[in-house]
Amino acid sequence: IDDLVRSIDIMPTILEILGIKPLKNFQGINLMPVISRGNTKKLDLTSYGETFLPKLRLGEEELRSYRTKNWKYIRYTKDNKIVKEELFYLENDPKELQNLSKRGKGKSKEFSLLLDELIEHNTKISTQRNTHFKMDEETIRKLKSLGYIK
């Protein structure tokens, strides 16, 4: 597949292959229509990435990224303030050697806003989901023995 695909697209694709219908509000898309021979459908997907490992382990910045097929925008934040931005045009710079964030201020701003919208959307979805469920006594006992609950 020449288009951008995401790891969240793997599960819906596998479920389609197995003939299992995904749950409602499942993230990702089924890639089988694109994988099938002769289908020239363009996906035009965007991708979100994040890592908090540098912050958690070293007290450094959080990294979040927004990616299209040809562009990658990376934002470094510390204490909720942007400390660095990177912008790469991947078609001409697949190794991400030329940071265009200073020259492409308008494009950086555009991707920063899109990243903010995506984060807000994902936060809204995750807080709307009902994640409460009743645990049986055996599960409660095991979690207590592991120190997860008191």
Which descriptors apply to this entry?
150 residues, alpha+beta
Q: Give the count of helical stretches.
A: 5
Q: How helix-rich are the residues, as a percent range?
A: 25-40%
What overall geometry do the principal axes of the alpha carbons give?
flat
| SSE string, helices as H and strands as E | HHEHEEEHH
Assess the beta-strand content as a share of residues: 15-25%
- What gap, in angstroms, lies between the N and C termini? 49 Å
Structural topology:
Blueprint: H1 10-18, H2 32-35, E1 47-51, H3 53-58, E2 62-67, E3 71-78, E4 81-89, H4 105-128, H5 137-145
Antiparallel strand pairs: 1-2, 2-3, 3-4
Question: Can you offer a commentary on this structure?
Answer:
With 150 residues, the protein is of the alpha+beta class. Helix content is 35%, strand content 19%. The protein has helices at residues 10-18, 32-35, 53-58, 105-128, 137-145, and strands at 47-51, 62-67, 71-78, 81-89. The chain has a 4-stranded antiparallel sheet. It is flat. The model has no long low-confidence stretch (mean pLDDT 85).
